[in-house]
Amino acid sequence: MIVSTDLLGLRTLAALLGLNVDQGELCQDGPLESLDLNAAALAESDPMLERSRLISRGFVHARFGRWETPVGDVITITVYEFTDAQQARLSVCDLHEALRAAGANLLNGDTNRDPDVSLASVTSIDDAVSFHSVTCAMAIDKFQILVVSGAGVSAEFVCPTGGLGVDVAWATPKQIRSVASAQAQKLATTSAH
After folding, report:
1. What is the C-alpha separation between 121 and 35, in angstroms, rounded?
2. Are strands 129-140 and 143-150 parallel, antiparallel or unpaired?
3. Can you tell me the distance from the alpha carbon of 183 to that of 193, in angstroms, rounded to the nearest whole number?
4. Which residues have C-beta within 8 Å of that of residue 188, sequence separation ≥ 6?
5. CA separation (Å) from 183 to 16, 47, 73, 187?
6. pLDDT given at position 121
7. Dihedral sign, CA of 97, 168, 40, 12?
8. How far, in Å, CA of 104 to CA of 90, rounded?
9. DSSP 6
């Protein structure tokens, strides 16, 4: 089972993002959380559908962490554990297809080339507030790693709909993929013991 020490530490995460913890550029936002099936399903807009999907994929457990910058930029890491490696890879493909259906800019193209990684840039407008995020999902062994960065709301930027928002993600796709890769390496090291 995944434990809190299996997630990247604050200093490692900050270094990957080019931020300085000692200057307050990144801090942990709450404790690392253990997620059962119901809690993991609540992360999606349709929790019942997500619960069914997780069950069909052999969901075992998940661990979630959230970090934030002083201006409200957020990065989250969720590590899902499935019954086997095939289910973890299929879960990444599920996410890739969901992002494609939502109109995301898929940065690594077709998952047929690399079925273990999905990288996407997503812009959404909700209640006249625009949000931009970068998402990377990666499968390693029986784990799916999901890293999402979301920019804080900036009063200087006005959305096309007239609301407040942000027009760019604060973390680049390359940075988000490096965070996912570092998390995968940490899992590979800890699960080998």
Report:
1. 25
2. antiparallel
3. 16
4. 140, 141
5. 11, 26, 20, 6
6. 78
7. positive
8. 19
9. G
Short-list 65, 42, 41, CA closest to 55:
41
pLDDT tens digits for range 80-121: 999 999 999 999 999 888 888 878 888 875 545 566 788 887
CA distance 166 to 146: 22
Alpha carbons 15 and 73: distance in angstroms, whole number: 16
Q: Which of 69, 68, 65, 67 is nearest to 77 (CA)?
A: 65
Q: Which of 32, 48, 50 is nearest to 183 (CA)?
A: 32
Query: Residue 110: CB partners within 8 Å, gap ≥ 6?
Result: none
CA dist., res. 78 & res. 64, Å (int): 4
The token pair that represents 77 in the structure block: 């890491």
